[in-house]
């Protein structure tokens, strides 16, 4: 499943017809893994690559890896990785302040004391890009990546995006 999703991300975002309005970003993610009875706050780094498919809509692929774990009830919780494909609607793509909403699909893997498990689920979020130059922006976002089988992975992230 992960290989198919990775191939779809590459194929969808690397088409030569969409490379003209592309972007790359790196974000620090303050994640929250909620088990219902307890939660943990591990961190991750997320990279994204996207291409505009029209004036306001972009398609983007994301890959995240855990940076640090968090301990709850004596158990170390870590985000091992997340891979996803998302549609993004940008309200002001040419403005200095561009709020957006995203919807897509994420395959994620978390571990608890070295035992890992993975899930895939529908994802959604909202955020904003704040221009700091002609081709760069500060990015702020909140997203729910997975909410399945009693486990929710969500997060607030901040980072930089470069347009090319």
Short description:
Keywords: Signal. The chain is mainly beta and about 160 residues long.
Characterise this structure.
The chain is mainly beta. The chain has a single domain (2-13, 24-163), classed as Porin. The protein is built from 1 helix and 10 strands, in the order αββββββββββ. The chain has one helix spanning 2-13, and strands at 22-34, 39-40, 43-52, 57-68, 70-72, 75-90, 97-112, 115-131, 136-148, 151-163. It has an 8-stranded antiparallel barrel. A hairpin with a 4-residue loop joins β3 and β4 (57-68). The model has no long low-confidence stretch (mean pLDDT 91).
Number of β-strand runs: 10
Return the average pLDDT rounded to an integer. 91
Please give the count of helices. Answer: 1
CATH class: Mainly Beta
Structural class: mainly beta
Q: Mind summarizing the main beta sheet?
A: 8 strands, antiparallel, barrel
- Series of secondary-structure elements, N-terminal to C-terminal: HEEEEEEEEEE
Strand composition percent: over 45%
Classify the fold: give the CATH topology: Porin
What is the radius of gyration computed over CA atoms, rounded to a whole number of angstroms? 16 Å
Biggest sheet: strand arrangement: 1-3-4-6-7-8-9-10
Query: Domains counted in the coordinates: how many?
Result: 1
Could you list the spans in which at least 5 consecutive residues all have pLDDT below 50?
none
Helix proportion of residues, in percent? under 10%
Task: Tell me the overall shape.
Answer: elongated
Terminal-residue CA separation: 30 Å
From the coordinates shown, what is the CATH architecture? Beta Barrel
